[in-house]
Amino acid sequence: xxxxxxxxxPTDLLAVGDxxxxxxxxxxxxxxxxxxxxxxxxxxxxFEQGTFPARxxxxxxxxxxxxxxxxxxxGCAGSTAVEYGVACMELEAADSGLxxxxxxQGSLAMRSVHAFGSEEQKQQWLPELxxxxxxxxxxxxxxxxxxxxxxxxxxxxxxxxxWVLNGSKMWITNGSIAxxxxxxxxxxxxxRGFLVPKGTKGFTATDIHGKLSLRASVTSELAFDDVxxxxxxxxxxxxxxxxxxxxxxxxxxxILWGTVxxxxxxxxxxxDYARTRIQxxxxxxxxxxxxxKLVEMVLELEKAYLVALRIGRLKDEGRALPAHIxxxxxxxxxxxxxxxxxxxxxxxxxxxxxxxxxxxxxNNLESVLTYEGTSEIHTLVLGxxxxxxxxxx
Length: 393
Prior knowledge:
alpha+beta, 10 helices, globular, transit peptide, Acyl-CoA dehydrogenase family protein, FAD
């Protein structure tokens, strides 16, 4: 039965949520309730202070079941792609830093061990990471090599049965608080992944300060100075760029959902504000130009939601290709950032304060726009997909 006009939900105009299954809605609502009760009351302080209580929150996120929730076994829930997606949507509706923590833990660190690790490595690390008793990070990006990881300088050389690791990684989420770093390095046998536990001699992690974005998130530089690793530190199933790039694909998938949550939070903040802000003796929601902004926001929000859901269904059917993930990340991050910017104008001067989430989201989304593949790189992925011609070099 069609909904009557007076029953339209202004936060989900097309009732996209009705396309979710009961289990997907349950996960969505459970994560939303957790963020409302446990995260949102503290976000302004964390962002202003540039802190994130990861050690405190990790076991709670483990109990919530979102750490590596889309992986099977080893304490992981084995959730579907859409179930994981709606969880990411609610996490990032609170803050991109929160979703980044969960994404790096599950889609990058845990997924790399799950997909490419030995059985011993999986048994040792995955249950601890899933429960939040241990924290992981993923070291791929370097100071001079972000979009071009094939030319990374970090190198591991054989010395007897051991490996000796030298180099550095940059912009690593969770870096200084991680118990385990999954580090990618060049070897004589091609690109390989290594498990580097915290405290390993020669391994240091230094936090990056002065950030104007993702302030409620730990971002670090990793350095490796003649780090000696045993033979069983290497991930046996990963050779070449396919390993780290496949894990990045999982993280990008979470982003294309998460940014829908950030966009929704900006839109609903602007809508609520417009209904109560009085100017010229009436709510600004009654002015044509304000209504135009709100309408443009909700149009793009609902389209981004549908994009995320369609790609999620394709992924659950085993039909999602890298180009689909690039489509979602490129479109949905760009959409969320434009919604955040427009929402800020509705809030006027109030929009630049931490009393409202809009500029915090906008600042965060500036990072999301370029991490896990810049907009330019995803444009070229799609360009190659539709033309058959590579334009990278």
